[in-house]
Amino acid sequence: MFSQKQKWMPFLLCLLFTFASLEATVLFGVRKDSGTLEQIDLSTGNIISSFGGITNATSIDFSQGSLGQELYAVINDSTNDRVVKIDENGNSSTFIDLGGGSAEPWDISFDSSGNLYITTDTQVQKYDSNGNLTLSFNHELSAIRGFAINQKEIGITVNPVNGDIAVSGHSSSNASARIFDSSGNLRGDIQDSGSFILGAGAIQYTPDGSELYLAEFESNDRMRIIDSNTLLELSSFDIFATTTNGADELLGLEFDPETGDIYVGGTANIFGLAKMNSNHQFIYGQAPFYRDLALASEFEAPTTVPEPSSFCLLFGGLLLFLRKRS
Questions:
Q1: CA angle 305, 20, 38 (to 5 degrees)
Q2: Domains contained in the chain, CATH given
Q3: By the 8 A CB rule, do 256 and 244 touch?
Q4: Rounded to the nearest 10 degrees, how much is the dihedral formed by the CA atoms of 131, 132, 137, 141?
Q5: pLDDT of 42-66, one tens digit each?
């Protein structure tokens, strides 16, 4: 009925589908009001489900390098500040105990070697993949002025190419961000771009490390694009330019390295989550307020649909049975 090659073709196609499905790009957000985690549909911005069963999170990020892609969250708790690791089934475990409730941790980022960086009210702290503190230095920035404690932010991002550390906030000298080298030495400041700036929150290097995106809080919620080498502004654009009102704060920022799409989270009067394409054109906005976002292509979130590998094994067994009978 079928040739030998034809009999195996469906099974091979099924296996290819299985391996292709193992790495699905996922987006998670931290709700501003509760610090809970939600998985978000990339195409629509709608909530898929709650995730992780944690509260009081201020930031999330996926690890890179030797750690692979694993989800980590900073918990800013009055009695138990910590970093937790969350597996693909949503189970969490303490990775770093930050000691009591006085550390005031805000943001988290990873470098390309899997080292973890945290911002507190006063410091940048670097931990290795085993959770050991290897570097700490003062960033001399304050959290965005005028906001309540659950809205504060001192953001951080690490350049994936040269290891530079960029920290956002507000300084007494009107800087929106400070750039440090991988050893914690100051490279330079990025000054506020106007007289009504409240500081900056969302900050993120592009996947190739050539540019730094910095979201400043003002009436138009400006996103500035900074040259990573010279620290000079290349251009800027209004994030919510298609709306009548801006955001009070913009705290989450993620790039999709496959499509170039940009996701921004914050507390807009209209939107709390916005998606733009690589040309900075507005795609959609959704209402939930997110204080941080994390995107990865190698994290298998829980699903109610049976994995295709199960079907392939059954199908392959049936083909073997039919082959022996033919």
A1: 50
A2: 4-325 (2.130.10.10)
A3: no
A4: 20
A5: 999 999 999 988 999 999 999 975 5
